[in-house]
Amino acid sequence: MSTARLYDNHGRRINYLRLAVTDRCNLRCFYCMPETGITYLPKKELLTFEEIERLIRIMATMGITKVRLTGGEPFVRTDLLKLIGRITEVPGINDVHLTTNGVLTAPHIPELKALGIASVNLSLDTLDKERFKLITRRDEFNSVWRTYEQLLHYNIPVKLNAVVMEDKNIDDIIPMVELTRKQPVSVRFIEEMPFNGEGMHYAQLTWTHKRIVEHLKQHYPLLQKIADPDHATAYHYQVPGYAGNIGVIAAFTRTFCGTCNRIRLTAQGTLKTCLYDDGVLNIRDLMRNEANDDTLKQHLLKAFNHRPKDGFEAEQHRSKHQPVTESMATIGG
Ligand code: SAM
Ligand code: SF4
To answer: Of the residues 30, 69, 73, which should be mutated to test ligand 2's pocket, given the most ligand atoms within 8 Å of the CB?
Structure first.
C-alpha cells in the first residue's frame, strides 16, 4: 500500500480522481447536452480498460486514494462492472464511487454492493415524471426512481444531485428536501454551470447557492448548518430531526477551489486539473506512444505543479480564451 501524498503548487493535497468512462449518454439533460447534433467520440479514441487500470495504478502510487467513475452515463459503457472490479483491486485505492443517471443502474445494484462500491451519486432533478421528461428529454423517471429505491434497499450511501434551474424545477426543491425526512439520503442542489454544449443559458445565474439557501430557510426557519467534510464542494445543512441532509454546491460561483483535492480524466484520456480548464495533458497519446511509467509520472507531476489556483484562473488560461461551453458529458461532471 502506497503512503505517498501528492500536493499541487498551491499546497493543496490531490487524492481524488474523477474518471469519465464514456462521453455517451442515454439522456439529454437540458443543462448538459443539446437535444440534437451531438457527435460522440469514435470508440478507438476512448481509453481502454487496460489503459485506465494502468493509469490508476500509477496514480495510486503517487497518492490518489479515491476514484469516481462518471461520464457521460457510465452504464452505457459495456462491461462497466468488470472495470469497477479491476479498479477496486488496485493497491492504494481505498474507495470507488459512481455517478449515474440511474436509467440502467437498478439491476446492477446487488453486484455494485458485492464489489464494495463506496457510494453512488444519482442525478435526479425533479420528483415529477412530466418535468423529468422536459428536463432530460427522455421518459425514464420510473427506472431512475427504481434505482433510488434499490440503492436505499441495499444500504449503499446515496446522494441525489439536482441542478437548480430557473423555470424548470424550483417547485421540486422542497419536495426533494422532504425525502431527507425519513431517508438517510443527502440531497444536493447544484448551481447550473454553462457546460451544456451551447453556453450560458441565462444573462446571469439567478439560482446561486445563496439564493438556494435563502429559499430553504424560508421553508425551514430552523434549518441548521452542519459540518462540512474535508474537501467538500457542498455546504451542508439539515432540517432538525430529519434523517438525511442537504448539500448546496456553488459550482458556478466557485467558492470551494481553495481546498480542491480532485483531478479529472476525460473519456479520451485528457487530464484536467480543474473543471474549468480545457485539458492540460493528453495522457492517452503518451501511453499509446509507449511512454513508460516513470515518464508518465513526470508528465503528471509537472501538470500538478502548474495547477491554477481556482476555476476563474483556469478559465482565463483556456487555450482559445473562450468561455466554457463544452458538454459536461465530455468532461465527467
Ligand atoms: N450521466 C451521469 C449522471 O448524470 O449522473 C454522470 C455524468 S453527469 C455529467 C455528472 C453530474 O454532472 C450530474 O450530477 C449532473 O447533474 C451534473 N451536471 C451536468 N451538467 C451540469 C451543468 N451544466 N451544471 C451543473 N451540473 C451539471
Ligand atoms: Fe447524460 Fe448525465 Fe449529462 Fe444528463 S447529466 S445528459 S444523464 S451525462
So the answer is: 73
CA 228 to centroid of ligand 2, rounded, Å: 26
| pTM tops 0.90 | yes
Provide mean pLDDT across the span 161-169.
96
User: Rounded to 5 degrees, what are φ and ψ at 185?
Assistant: -115, 150
Q: Is 297 helix (H, G, I), strand (E, B) or coil?
A: helix
Task: Give the number of the atom of ligand 1 that is nearest the alpha carbon of residue 192.
Answer: 24
**What are 109-145's pLDDT values in tens digits?**
999 999 999 999 999 999 999 999 999 999 999 999 9
What mean pLDDT is reported for the chain?
95
Domains and CATH numbers, the chain: 16-331 (3.20.20.70)
Q: Note the ligand closest to the C-alpha atom of 140.
A: 2
- Least distant ligand from the CA of 132: 2
**Residue 237 scores a pLDDT above 70:** yes
Strands 234-238 and 245-249: antiparallel
Q: What secondary structure does DSSP assign to 232-266, as a single string?
A: -SEEEEE-TT-SSEEEEE-TTTT--GGG--EEEE-
**At which residue does the C-alpha cell 454544449 appear?**
197
pLDDT exceeds cutoff 80 at 248: yes
Which residues are CB-contacts of 318 (< 8 A; sequence separation ≥ 6)? 276, 277, 278, 324
